């Protein structure tokens, strides 16, 4: 049975880069919430009150991505999901639902120092390279960073969690 890889971590931790590399190594399909969200909703993004607008749409996109992922998994191909589940309870709910449907799950939890992540996000905003989906303003970076909840003992006891440092001390995977 194909594996569901869930790539999570705070904003700027390197999730997209990591997920792309994992997809290339495994032959899996990388599915990123930000790319879907930007395509579907960015043209309608309000100038103010972005957070409530975002939250109202995120659940619909997550449901659509999971439906699509199940179709991919049915073909025997792994999925590499980058879903922005930065808070523990929604992440655990998603992971439990995946496991309840009989899929093997591995969560890859990326971590890097906040200053490095801030610099990465600023650079991504300016260069708009291959991992760019949408501009992340400094206030959204700070808010999302403050909201990030790393895995705890309960989470690590329920499913496989591979912790990955993408900071300056990180070693490139062989």
UniProtKB/TrEMBL annotation:
The keyword ATP-binding applies. Keywords: ATP-binding, Nucleotide-binding. One of its GO terms (molecular function) is ATP binding. The keyword Nucleotide-binding applies. InterPro entries: P-loop_NTPase. It holds the Pfam family AAA_33. Transmembrane segments: none annotated. It comes from the Bacteria. This is ATP-binding protein. It comes from Roseateles subflavus.
């Amino acid at each position: 049975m194909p594996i569901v890889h869930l790539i999570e971590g705070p904003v700027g931790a390197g999730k997209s880069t990591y997920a792309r590399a994992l997809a290339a190594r495994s032959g899996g399909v990388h599915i990123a919430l930000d790319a879907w969200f930007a395509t579907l909703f960015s043209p309608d993004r309000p100038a103010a009150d972005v957070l409530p607008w975002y939250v109202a749409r995120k659940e619909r996109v997550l449901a659509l991505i999971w439906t699509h992922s199940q179709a991919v998994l049915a073909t025997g191909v792994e999925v590499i999901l980058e879903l922005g589940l930065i808070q523990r309870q929604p992440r655990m709910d998603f992971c439990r639902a995946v496991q309840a449907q009989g899929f093997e799950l591995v969560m890859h939890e990326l971590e890097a120092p906040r200053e490095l992540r801030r610099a990465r996000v600023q650079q991504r905003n300016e260069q708009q390279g291959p991992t760019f989906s949408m501009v992340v303003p400094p206030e959204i970076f700070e808010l999302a960073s403050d909201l990030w909840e790393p895995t705890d003992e309960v989470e690590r006891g329920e499913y496989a969690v591979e912790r990955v440092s993408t900071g300056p001390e990180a070693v490139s995977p062989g």
